[in-house]
Design a protein that fits this description.
Blueprint lengths: L1 E3 L3 H13 L10 E7 L2 E9 L2 E7 L8 H15 L4 E6 L4 H5 L4 E5 L4 E6 L2 H7 L9 E6 L6 H13 L3 E5 L9 H11 L6 E5 L18 H23 L2 E7 L5 H13 L6 E5 L3 E2 L2 E2 L2 H9 L3 H5 L4 H9 L1 H14 L2
Parallel strand pairs: 4-5, 8-9, 8-11, 9-10, 11-12
Antiparallel strand pairs: 1-2, 2-3, 3-4, 5-7, 6-7, 13-14
Helix pairs in contact: 7-8
Length: 337
């Protein structure tokens, strides 16, 4: 029978169990469950939204039903909370344990295996099958927080050089501009480009926010594996479904993470027959156009300067929703501390 791990004493015992399994305790979770035998913790597992993590079983109980019991308890809890599509990030050596409980592998690196349960990437792609076109097509994955003239320039360039272009807008709603608004602004800003399809990324753009690090040992390793996981899901599943042979990105002289991401694409995309096309960052006068610059100008009240960096629809949206966006900025700033 499982129970909740909540007290300091229970957490200390869980930390010890995780350590024996080569895992770290991750405080980012909504639910932390344990199975006890004669008062001793023999298995643990946690859930953060629709991601399962910190699954560990005492060595003495590896060949019992403890693993399936803790996973089934987490699945039930997740479904009751309204999550019908679950992910688990684990070490590759544990993949077969999850497969035995009907989890489906998404991708594997040398240190990380990603599996899903419930809905699948096949159903995500099936729902978009009517948008798939034959041709020499290109793809872009964008957050657009908010949509800028730099984003539009990148998409326009791809549209001129490709039969069809697929813009995947990151669906995770952890940005200052809400997801549905970002999607709408990109669609409005590219409406005249008839060979461009703007579609949701689904839950298949693995971000730094959702990527759990409890089984990796240092920040550099976490960043590398998060990037590789995201790119391999794109290369193995998404690109073939839309006949994508080129992926467009903007040069990144500012953000270290995005620069690392671009370098990883240069290394990994050719494995899937995809050419990386890196476009020089667009400027407005002397200013490099970036979403972070737009947000700063918005909150600093420099609206005329901001206007030169964004399409008209974005500009009107930002002014109209400034208070809401400031509230979201404050909320996410607090939650990241």
């Amino acid at each position: 029978m499982h129970s909740y791990i909540t007290s300091e004493a229970q957490i200390r015992e869980a930390v010890s169990l995780l350590k024996d399994a080569g895992l770290d305790y991750d405080p980012a979770h909504e639910v932390f469950l344990g199975i006890y035998e004669d008062g001793r913790l023999i298995a643990s597992g946690a859930r953060d939204h629709n991601i399962l993590k910190m699954v560990a079983v005492d060595e003495e109980y590896q060949n019992t039903g403890a693993f399936s019991e803790i996973i089934n308890a987490l699945i039930t809890d997740a479904f009751q909370a309204g999550h019908d599509h679950l992910f688990v990030f684990t070490k590759p050596m544990y993949t077969f344990h999850f497969e035995s409980l009907n989890f489906t592998p998404l991708c594997t690196t040398d240190k990380v295996a990603v599996l899903e349960f419930g809905k699948s990437i096949k159903s995500y792609l099936e729902n978009l099958r009517n948008l798939s076109r034959r041709g020499r097509n290109s793809g872009l994955v964008m957050n657009c927080n908010p949509f800028t003239k730099g984003h539009r320039f990148l998409i326009q360039t791809a549209a001129k050089e490709s039969d069809f272009v697929y813009v995947f807008v990151v669906q995770e709603d952890k940005s200052i501009v809400p997801y549905q608004d970002r999607l709408d602004l990109v669609r409005r800003g590219t409406a005249e480009l008839k060979n461009v399809y703007v579609i949701p990324s689904g839950e298949y753009a693995v971000s730094r926010i959702t990527f759990p690090s409890y089984f990796l040992k240092n920040k550099e390793q976490v960043t590398k594996q998060q990037i590789e996981t995201d790119l391999r899901i794109f290369g193995q599943h998404i690109a073939p479904a839309f006949n994508i042979i080129k992926r467009y990105v903007g040069e990144e002289p500012i953000c270290e993470f995005t620069s690392l991401y671009n370098e990883a694409m240069k290394r990994l995309m050719p494995e899937y027959g995809i050419k990386l096309v890196e476009i020089e960052r667009k400027t407005a006068g002397e200013t490099l156009i970036s979403a972070s610059t737009v947000r700063r100008l918005l909150f600093d009240g420099k609206h005329e300067e901001m206007k030169t960096l964004v399409p008209e629809a974005t500009y009107e949206y930002l002014l109209k929703n400034k208070d809401m966006l400031r509230a979201r900025f404050d909320k996410f700033s607090k939650s990241s501390k």
